Amino acid sequence: MEQVRAVVASIPPGSVLSYGDVAELAGLRSARLVGRILAEDGGDLPWHRVLRSNGTVADHLRRRQLELLRAEGVLADGARIDMRHYRWGA
């Protein structure tokens, strides 16, 4: 859990990663586990910078997540973020 928290905390403003990216960087095999960790213990992290691999956001958090990303200069095309453009390290 601490590895996931460290990776998410290190994503700079204006950048995003996918759940799978975070899992890989944290040495985990499951992107779903990253989602669960963020849901249970990620309130103090920049959780909004973690997206599905196709660039979409969590349905139940869509408005808030897109609002937070937009404030950092990450612009959506509809409800999708261009991962090739905004992915951290890309």
From TrEMBL:
Keywords: DNA damage. GO terms for molecular function: catalytic activity. It comes from the Bacteria. The keyword NAD does not apply. CDD domains: ATase. Pfam families: DNA_binding_1. GO terms for biological process: DNA repair. InterPro entries: ATL_DNA_repair, MethylDNA_cys_MeTrfase_DNA-bd, MethylDNA_cys_MeTrfase_DNAb, WH-like_DNA-bd_sf. Residues 2-74 form the Methylated-DNA-[protein]-cysteine S-methyltransferase DNA binding domain. This is O(6)-alkylguanine repair protein YbaZ.
